[in-house]
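Revision sheet: structure tokens.
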Amino acid sequence: MASDEHDLAAGDFSTWLGEMRRALRGETDADVPCGDCTACCTSSQFVHIEPDETDTLAHIPRALLFPAPQRPRGHVLLGYDEHGHCPMLADGRCSIYEHRPRTCRTYDCRVFPATGLDVEDRPAIAERVRRWRFSYRKPADRQQHEAVRAVAVTLRAGERAASTTRLAVRAVEDPISCPR
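Predicted:
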């Protein structure tokens, strides 16, 4: 079996869930064990940057940004190059890592196996997602994981037009599936 086919330890589900919720509230950055993976940086994704992210904006050439549709003035998107790569990715690394956008600071592809939502439209991310395996310290942790997945199914049924990422994040944020 090739090394890229091995399972990856996603961590204890309940611990991950609490940390992810804190990251989504802006209390901390997501702590993702990416290693050498750059799937999210090479999967033709737009990166939303809010006007208050002045440090980030100071480190990205203005020519790479454009107004974010259906967002208030000052919200911008960072696009991707002709290969689907983030233009800030250089030599396989983020050239502005210490100044990266909030979107990048909170992105964690483990949100997809946590919710059971499919990202087949992003093959590099989907490959990584298939490898993550959560652990469970208590039976209640597995039940909590099942609750998050149930919320994701409900959201998917009600919001077919929403992006998979947005649905996954909403399912993780849901207080019913994520009691404290």
